[in-house]
Amino acid sequence: MVIGIFGESCTGKSSIAAALRDKTGGTVYTGKDYLKLAKNEADAKRVFTDLLQGDKTVIYVISEKEDLALLPKDAFRVLVTAELDVIKERFVSRMNGRNLPPPVEAMLERRHGFLDAEPHNLKVEGGKDNIEDICGLILRSV
Questions:
Q1: Does residue 56 contact residue 27 with C-beta atoms inside 8 Å?
Q2: Closest CA to 50 of 33, 65, 37, 63
Q3: Domains in the chain, start-ordered, CATH in brackets?
Q4: How far apart are CA 35 and CA 121, in angstroms?
Q5: pLDDT score, position 78
Q6: How many Å apart are CA 13 and CA 124, to the nearest integer?
Q7: Distance separating alpha carbons of residues 117 and 108, to the nearest angstrom
Q8: Does residue 71 contact residue 4 with C-beta atoms inside 8 Å?
Q9: CA 94 centroid distance within chain
Q10: More exposed terminus of the chain, fewer Cβ within 10 Å: N or C?
Q11: CB contact set of 90 (below 8 Å; sequence gap of 6+)
Q12: pLDDT value at position 95?
């Protein structure tokens, strides 16, 4: 079983993935973690693609559109969204409480919603929807 959890930075994807890992015993890969599977990118993508075709539970956390192409067609796709103000607030926390530098704030504003039109089986809102409820929805649907 492959569960793809995708969305912008600071929407709650990793928290959902961690909760799913605890419930399923699955392995979580984030972003380009698959590069650790081989010495070069082409081999790593091949190994990762093969791994995603296997019988094990894999939870793949994605923040970049191009990484969606690695998901198998039968993967369960979860889009995680959040309001822009929530994303900015979480990003400030990630930066140890410092104000967002103007270029970072502009990047967050520019990218807001860039994955929302991607095909998905389930859409949840990080920060509003309860993680346990989200996990239950996913596990009942896969």
A1: yes
A2: 37
A3: 2-141 (3.40.50.300)
A4: 27
A5: 98
A6: 10
A7: 17
A8: yes
A9: 17
A10: N
A11: 10, 82
A12: 84
Q: Is the C-alpha dihedral spanning 94, 96, 100, 103 positive or negative? A: negative
**Per-residue pLDDT, 94:** 85
pLDDT at residue 96 in the model: 82
Q: Give a three-class secondary structure readout of the chain.
A: CEEEEEECCCCCHHHHHHHHHHHHCCEEEECCHHHHHCCCHHHHHHHHHHHHCCCCCEEEEECCHHHHHHCCCCCEEEEEECCHHHHHHHHHHHCCCCCCCHHHHHHHHHHCCCCCCCCCCEEEEECCECHHHHHHHHHHHC
* Strands 2-7 vs 58-62: parallel, antiparallel or unpaired: parallel
Instruction: Name the β-bridge partners of 62.
Output: 6
What's the confidence (pLDDT) of residue 126? 86
63-99 per-residue burial string, b: 16 or more CB within 10 A, e: under 16 = beeebbebbeeebbbbbbbbeeebbbebbbeeeeeee
72 within 8 A of 50, measured Cβ to Cβ: no
**Residues of the chain predicted below pLDDT 70:** none
Tell the residue number behind the tokens 């990003």, with chain if given: 91
